[in-house]
Amino acid sequence: MVARERRLWTLIVSGLLCLLITGCGGGNSSGGSGGSAPTPPSPSFTMSLSNGNIALTQGASGQPLQVSIMPENGFTGTATVTITGLPSGVTVVPNSLSVSSASPGSFTLSASATAEISQQSVSVNAVSGTLNVDKSLQLNVSGVAPPDPFHHVGGSMVHGFYDETRQRLFATNIGLNELDVISGVDFSVQARVPVPQPLGIDQMADGKTLVIGTVAQELVTVDEDTLAVTQHPFSEVGTGGFTLFFPTVVALANGKVIAIGQEEGIDSSNIVDGGQYLYVWDSNSNTFTKLEPTGSLPWETDSLARSADHKWAAFAGDQFYLYSSDSDSLTSAPLATVNPSDNTFGVRGYAINPNGSQIAVVSATQVTFLNNSLAVVASTPIPSAFQNSRSAAQFSADGSKLYLEYAFPLRVEEIDANSHTALGYLSATVVTDGDNLERMLATDSHDRGFFGIDGGIRFVDLTQTPVPNDPDGILPPPFCPNLAASLPLHSAVQQQLSNTFTGISLFVGSQAAPLLNGGTAISIPAFSTVGPVDVLCVDSHGDTAVYADDVSYGVEAIGFSANLLPPTGNPIGYLFGFGFNGSQGDTPVVDINSQPATNVNSLVDLQPGVIDGEALQVPNGSPGEVASISVSSPDGAGLLSSAATYYTAPTIVPASGLLQLLYDTHRNVVYALKASEVDVLNPATLQWQSSLPFPAGATGTYEMALTPDGSKLVVGGLSGTDPQHPELIVLDPTGNAAPSLFTDTAMGVDAITGSIVIPPFNKVIFAGFRAVEFDLSSLTFSPLNINTGDLLRSTPDGNHIFGADLNNSSGAVFSLDPATYAVTSESFGFLFWGDLAVSPDGSQFAPVEIDLNLGAGIGFFDSALHYLNANVYPAFSPPDDQGAIGATYSPGGKVLVEPLGDSMEFWDTATGTLRTRLMTPEELQTPRFYPDFAGPTIALDPTGETIFAVSLSGVTVLKLAQPLDQMPSVSWPEAHGRTGKQAGLRESIAAHVAAMHSKNHLAHP
Predict the structure, then answer these.
(1) Residues of 927-945 as b/e, b for ≥16 C-beta within 10 angstroms?
(2) What are the start-end ranges of the E strands in 721-843?
(3) What is the pLDDT of residue 1001?
(4) How far is residue 376's CA from residue 278's CA, in Å, rounded to a whole number?
(5) Where are the beta strands (DSSP E) in 622-738?
(6) DSSP code of residue 440
(7) Does residue 357 have a cis peptide bond before it, meaning omega lies within 30 degrees of 0?
(8) Domain 486-553, what fold?
(9) In terms of CATH architecture, what is 556-647?
(10) Residue 7: DSSP 8-state
């Protein structure tokens, strides 16, 4: 019984298991019940790849990728295999494979020369009927960075000439008052030749002499071998009374140079290269002759062109003109003839091929090609409007192509000069460009294009295939992602991108930065060298955009705003460099000689590039101590060695209400003008002596001057009770005689300002539209009926007198003969002079345009009113406060002292460059209004070693280590000193200063 039950349970369990697992078949032929046979698995396959990672290099093919399939469950078919998700520029051969188990296949992947540098997964897909098998493949595309297309120089380059024989590019750099000599091999700066305000440039037909047009009313020639500079002054003024400068010059085979003359300040309808006059300078006779073929005015020529053999020149005015140097003659044709139809859009540019056989005339919509008989040969539509305000046209060295420069952003359109067809364009831009003078400087025989942009030289290989023109006329440069601005050394980072980018390749410095995840992220490489690097962006056409100084590694300090610091007073200085704020915008720690700088505040919006700036209060130091500045942030630490020197401890002599200072060399005392007296300071003891009080009834606003013999101290100005008439106080500097007061009430309304000078004839001149004279002998006023300008200054002996207009858009300057009162003047439009200084010997004078925000613009003139030069600020010593009244020449005339609210600038009067910036221990007195007529608030001793300045609490007395005339020039950094960056620095500093003033941290007296 037990055995039977055990057997029954065994049968039941076995049956259940049979049903649960597979079902049970059985039964007999009569159809009795029982289990069924199992269903066999469906045929299928798996796929294998010979390599799961494929590495490609731009312009090359990779190793074959073998694809095999392995059958399963009796699969005997074939599969079609394809690869999908390839990045831009990567192709595969064949497009698909037919693969069986017995017959594997191979793909070959290739990357074009401009394939997208990336790291991403692609899909290998095998399909057979309803079967679909996928495999992922990691694809890495790498490449070598193109030749570095951008080279920092500093300043702002305007025009250039490439010398094939010497393999040098000569570029005029108005931003630094120099001619830059740049190697055509490695683009390094070979020399920086001082040239005043250089603009246009060409090579003379002798092949060894450059001719340069300047803002300084002269042409300059430069020997290319010795770099010796020779000046050729231009003496004739413009017909409208405004002086001329020369933005464009072309040199001809007969030794003549055609130059465009632009009226100073008029800006020629915003045409940078254009002007209202044409002159010919004959280098053989050194004479200037007006060239305009007609007597009609206004004349307007926007550019000049010449052939490579120097025999032909072209320009447009009332007609289109072709000049032949062989015959020294002009031929012309109506503008409507050379620029059909009917010259509707105006002639906007022109170029001549190397031998003068073909001339290209460019309008807004087309290029018209002419022969040298000025007959139309062909015309070519151009894709986008050509603007003559910032553009240029130039033939290639062999004459086969015409290059048209388009600005903002900088691009070059190419025209086939044989078939007269538009070929496309190439980018020459630097992002973000802040330079309004971006220009095509030159091309060479190898079709290399050199472009001045953003304080550097942008190189473009014009032999590469151009980008096809867009049907809508849009010529965009490559569009590229913004990268993390600041990274620690040796640090690579993956960055998510705000958009999806495809078809581009990025190089950070010289290293590839591959796109990731289908262009939604990027891998920024690590760097072991501190400092900024450029980012190059290359699109699928091979077109390149440069992002200058776009990523920095570690911390690098490159410049400090001043190089002479007071040992006390803790003024605010500005430190510039890279990596200061780290990737998270942290405030860095700054030390000067191991002492912490306080109130460190980061400047903002320092674009373009990734430069950082920090405002900081300078700690105290010891006189003579050389200051090195260290800065540290999350990105690392940097050191600026020997950034500045602490000068001898200054003295502040307490005083209030001071209006003007004057040094009396006869008695070696300093006079300090007040509202009701003149105080007298002993410069040896720095003690105040007995003052010189004004007589009763004195009510005017005054300026003081000393007679050349030192016998009288005169205080003159406008009457306080009748401000349209002059008032004069005569003081005895010894204090022995009583002061005298004189007021004019008889001459009617006098158009004077209150500024006075004393010629060596015992007379006082009141400046103004109708100047007035006071005779110190007869003690009488007399009208002069001359216009001297609003402001007069003279040499100490009174023999040289110069004037300037305040707040006048003519920018006029004046020279006054002290004996005859004959006045000569020149106008420099749109300048607003606020101060004036005269050199001790009268050979030079300098009107100053006071900026209520930051700094001062200085014009240097000779005694004949020729504009000699202008001041140019270094990139990393920008002005950091508004100007003050009191510009003063050093005793030898080599240095001009220009006071600002917080500092003194020492300008080299020969080059217009900054020798030194000295920070003062407290704020100097600055104008309350502009223009605020006032006398000079600084004075120098006769040696130029001691400076006296009106400051917040009295007179600040500064003793220099050497006389001003012996003060050496500082070598300010310019390697990354681009104009756009300089503008950004100044704007950021201005915002910081305004914020400080609003908090009364820098309140002016």
Answers:
(1) beeebebbbbbbbbbeebb
(2) 726-731, 740-743, 752-757, 763-768, 772-775, 780-783, 791-794, 801-804, 813-816, 823-826, 835-838
(3) 40
(4) 26
(5) 626-633, 636-646, 651-654, 660-664, 669-673, 677-682, 687-693, 701-706, 713-718, 726-731
(6) E
(7) no
(8) Immunoglobulin-like (2.60.40)
(9) Sandwich (2.60)
(10) H
pTM of the model: 0.90
What residues pair up with 596 in beta bridges, in sequence order? 591
Cβ atoms of 659 and 671 within 8 Å: the answer is no
Measure CA 407 to chain center: 15
Distance, in Å, from the CA atom of 839 to the CA atom of 846, rounded to the nearest integer, reads 8
Amino acid at residue number 693: P
Q: What amino acid occupies position 942?
A: P
> How many C-beta neighbours within 10 Å does residue 724 have?
12
AA letter at 928: R
Domains 45-142 and 694-833 share a fold: no
pLDDT of residue 343: 87
Give the position of tokens 């780290």.
582
Place of tokens 């407290």: 922
DSSP state string for 182-228: EETTT--EEEEEE-SSEEEEEE-TTSSEEEEEESSSEEEEEETTT--
Rounded to 5 degrees, what are φ and ψ at 916?
-155, 150
Query: How distant, in Å, are the alpha carbons of 1, 23, 27 from that of 14?
Result: 20, 11, 16
pLDDT of residue 721: 78
Supply the pLDDT for residue 723: 74
Superfamily holding 45-142: Immunoglobulins (2.60.40.10)
Residues near 1 by Cβ (< 8 Å), separated by ≥ 6?
A: none
Report, as ranges of residue numbers, the positions in the chain whose pLDDT lies below 70: 1-36, 236-242, 265-270, 294-298, 389-390, 432-436, 605-609, 746-750, 807-809, 830, 928-933, 975-987, 996-1005
Establish how many alpha carbons lie within 13 A of residue 678's alpha carbon, considering only the half-sphere containing its beta carbon.
Answer: 31
Helix (H, G, I), strand (E, B) or coil at 554: coil
Q: Is 694-833 CATH 2.130.10.10?
A: yes
